[in-house]
Amino acid sequence: MTSDDARPPSELPDPRSLTREHFDHVARVTTRWTDNDMYGHLNNAVYYELFDTAINAWVISASGVDVTSLPELGVVAESGCRFFAELEFPHPVDVAVRVERVGRSSVTYSLGLFDSRSSMVAALGHWVHVYIDRTTRGTVPVPAAVREALARAQEARA
Amino acid sequence: MTSDDARPPSELPDPRSLTREHFDHVARVTTRWTDNDMYGHLNNAVYYELFDTAINAWVISASGVDVTSLPELGVVAESGCRFFAELEFPHPVDVAVRVERVGRSSVTYSLGLFDSRSSMVAALGHWVHVYIDRTTRGTVPVPAAVREALARAQEARA
Amino acid sequence: MTSDDARPPSELPDPRSLTREHFDHVARVTTRWTDNDMYGHLNNAVYYELFDTAINAWVISASGVDVTSLPELGVVAESGCRFFAELEFPHPVDVAVRVERVGRSSVTYSLGLFDSRSSMVAALGHWVHVYIDRTTRGTVPVPAAVREALARAQEARA
Amino acid sequence: MTSDDARPPSELPDPRSLTREHFDHVARVTTRWTDNDMYGHLNNAVYYELFDTAINAWVISASGVDVTSLPELGVVAESGCRFFAELEFPHPVDVAVRVERVGRSSVTYSLGLFDSRSSMVAALGHWVHVYIDRTTRGTVPVPAAVREALARAQEARA
Asked: Considering only CA atoms, which of B40, C53, B121 is closest in space to residue A90?
């Protein structure tokens, strides 16, 4: 693992300077008593639960399609996160999502987590969804409704 | 994010060819009904729970120190995972840990997940713990007992 | 555990006819992708996570005291839930809390879960917190700030 | 569901005197770093995850049927737990299951949790599964393979 490994996409500025405005969508989520671990802060695995939640809720909402009932499943091929600041229950958290790249069968996202009371990014994640067939588990193209919703989000930036 | 980002440390072979023997320690863990998500396989966030569990349990056991009661806390500065194959409850999983680098205040680990019935790696993770002071939350050196236990593990390979 | 324990408090009507108005406090919480289990609905253990979250967040807010830093810990001595209807991510959920009884060292709550789009109760829980000393783990009286906050809630009903 | 349902079965002695021998099946499970909450012990919701896991794993194993692929789903109609002693990661836990009653469409279980190093029961749970049709969500009879497996367990006691 070199220090390059979690480098944010080149079109983004220094990661610690990111704000909600660099992302396509922001969702406020509530935290839970059990999210805090023995060290009194949100456990790192919870960050990934929140990324998963924000991506899927946004794709469902933006595409108008309940992704859980499609024949294609978006499964995680790769994920990662850099943690800059602690987050704690009972404070809500904002999860920000940005579409980085839509390939033939994969979509890459960047994610930012913000304490709801702060403008500083607490964590920066990346996430690669690969679409597979629910039955054969083989790779398939990104579903059209999802592709179109993500394209609209990318266009809305310009 | 380029395809280099999650590159396994240079001393490791192609990640999909990794076996349990490439790691310093392997722990068998049980899976849970709730680990399977709507897609019928272990949710990706569970992988990180298992990494966290395996690293901490091993450090506790190898160092003879209950890390949860130390004045220094090992908190996650960065983590990541590439997912190669699905895992499912009710099958147990083997979590393999390898110490990659021990710095002044940080430790980098590689992690492998294996279906207990298979020799093929199902996921490859990386993990950076940074030690902070429980009260001030400032960076501190890796605790001596942890450093020594990790050095013993690295020496045992040779 | 006597057979009385799971019976809805006598001052409450038939449990399935309960509405948000029968409770002292209602908090809206977001659900997560991982909350849905293989059967496509919120896993039953998540209900208890939401009960725990709603009780503690309300006690923190109503008492003005961060209960996680008190010398007394409110730990669960007993809990239970009857499940009437399925709940699903991505829909938010309302968690309703009612103080049933404040004893010397214990507090009993009733809890209702509601789909945010519905007036029908989806689940009815009960919960007994017993206060113990953080160090000795022996039973101690309910902390004064908590007792006063709960008394105010009960008085506000009249 | 009547108020009788949560009463400990009459054939069982005082709950705190229960040992593993009072149950039909015992499974050892590993605990996780995230199972411990801010108070340094297994969070109460984890107990329900372990109950769910032990019941389903045992039914799958004893019936020879992967219950997750049946047209009938066993969903939780009621659950409850009394907590007698704290449990902590990193120690494994034994989850003990006993079939209390098999009705037309429901099954009632008692559950015991034991620290793997102790003979004293740390928690006693009860659990009611009701079988519903995966599509219509209406109540259906307990699947034959499940009913037979549970009957065999009850007979093996005599």
From this structure: C53
pTM metric for this prediction: 0.92
- CA C113 vs. chain centroid, Å, equals 9
**Does residue D9 have a cis bond before it (omega within 30 degrees)?**
no
Which chains does A contact via 3+ CB–CB distances below 8 A?
B, C, D
Could you give the ipTM of this predicted complex? 0.91
Number of structural domains chain C divides into: 1
- State whether residue C106 is helix, strand or coil: strand
What are the helix (H) ranges across chain C? 44-63, 144-157
Q: How far is CA C143 from CA B147, C54, C131, C148, D44, in A?
A: 42, 19, 8, 9, 21
Contact indicator for C44, C97 with CB cutoff of 8 Å: no
Residue A144: predicted pLDDT: 96
Å from D153 to nearest chain C CA? 25
Please report all neighbours of B, defined by 3+ CB atom pairs within 8 A: A, C, D
Query: The domain spanning residue C21 has which CATH number?
Result: 3.10.129.10
DSSP sequence for B95-148: EEEEEEEE-SSEEEEEEEEEETT-SSEEEEEEEEEEEEETTT--B-PPPHHHHH
β-bridge pairing B93-102 and B121-133? unpaired
DSSP code of A108?
E
Cβ neighbours of A31 in C, within 8 Å? 53
Q: pLDDT by residue (tens digit) across C112-122?
A: 999 999 999 99
Element (H, E) at D48: helix D44-63
pLDDT value of residue D19: 95
**Under a CB-based contact definition with an 8 Å cutoff, are residues D98 and D26 in contact?**
no
Could you tell me the residue range of the domain that residue C40 belongs to? 3-157
Mutation target to probe the A interface, by most A beta carbons within 10 A, among C32, C42, C75 is: C32
DSSP D84-123: -S---TTS-EEEEEEEEEE-SSEEEEEEEEEETT-SS-SE
pLDDT tens profile C15-53: 888 999 999 999 999 999 999 999 999 999 999 999 999
Question: How far apart, in whole angstroms, are the C-alpha atoms of residue B6 and residue B84?
Answer: 13
